[in-house]
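Dear colleague,

Following up on Tuesday's group meeting, I ran the structure prediction for the four-component complex that the binding team flagged. I've pasted the input sequences exactly as they went in, so you can double-check that nothing got truncated or mislabelled along the way. The C-alpha cells for the whole assembly follow below. Feel free to forward this to whoever is handling the docking comparison.

Inputs:
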Amino acid sequence: MKYLKKLRNSGLRPTKQRLQICEVLFDTEKTFHFTINDLVKKINKQSNNKISLATVYNTVHAFEKKGYLKQIPINSSQTYFDTNISDHHHFYDLKEEKLIDLDNSDIGPINILKKISGKKIKSVEVLVKLED
Amino acid sequence: MKYLKKLRNSGLRPTKQRLQICEVLFDTEKTFHFTINDLVKKINKQSNNKISLATVYNTVHAFEKKGYLKQIPINSSQTYFDTNISDHHHFYDLKEEKLIDLDNSDIGPINILKKISGKKIKSVEVLVKLED
DNA sequence: TTGTACTTTATAATGATTCTAAAAAGGAGT
DNA sequence: ACTCCTTTTTAGAATCATTATAAAGTACAA
C-alpha cells in the first residue's frame, strides 16, 4: 500500500476511507483543484464504496492540516482545495469559474517591504482574476 | 445630502437606507474592512432605525457592483468587504483573524508573465498570511 | 483477544446568504 | 398634491455548505 506509510508517519490511521481518498487525490499525473463536492463525485465514480460526507470533510481537513493539501483563498460559496502544495499562485477565470495554476516562475519575485512587528510571513498568495 | 448625487449618478435611488449605509461606510477618516455582520452592528450603533438584513445584503452588493466596495478574497465563513477601493493588498493575521492593508508601495511591482489567450487581467490580489 | 482510543457514519444543527412576495417609497408627469 | 409605475424594503422562509453529535465500527498495542 502506497499511502500506508505516509498516513502512519503523520499520525493518521490508514483507514480504508483515507487510503481511498489518497488514491483519488494523489494517484494522478497532474495536480488539480477541487471542492468537497467535486471530490465526493470522484470517489463515487472511482468505486462503489460510498464514503460518508462527514468523513470526506474530516479527511480533507486532516490532510490540509498535515500539509498534503492547500486551501485556495477565493471568494466562492464553496471552499477550493489544491493538491499542488508547491509554492505557487492562481488565475481565476471569472466567466468559466475555473482556477488555473500560475507557477512561481510565471510571476516576478514578490518582495513584501512592510513588516509587522512580532509577526512573520507564513505565505504569500496571489490571485489574478481574468475577464474576456 | 452628501451621497445623494453619488447614488443618483450610479442609477441607485437614494433611499433612506442607502444614505444611512453610505454614512456608516464612507463618512470616516480611514477606510476599513468589514463583514455584513459588522456592518449591521455599526448601523444599529449609529442610530435606532434598524435596517433589514436583506437590505444590508442588497445594498452592499449593489455598492460592490458599482465599484464603491471591494470584496476581499480570503477563506472565511463570512465574506469580507473593504471600503478602500484603491489598488492594494492585504496581510491576514491568522491568530487575530484581522486584515491589514498593504499598499501597492509596500510591495514590489508584480509582473504576471504567463498569458491566457482570449483573457485579460482584471485584478491582481495578494494575500500575505501572518503567524507569530 | 481484549481494551482503548481513534474513525466513520447518518443525521441534526448551524449559520451565512439568497429568495419570495407583499408592502412601502421614490420619482416623473399631470 | 395626486396618480402611476418602477424600484426598494422587509420579514420570514428557503437554501446550502459546513460542523456537531453520539452511536457503532475499526485499528492496533499489549
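Residues 13-16, 35-37, 53-54, 57, 77-79 of chain B lie near DNA strand C (CB under 10 Å from a C1').

Cheers,
M.
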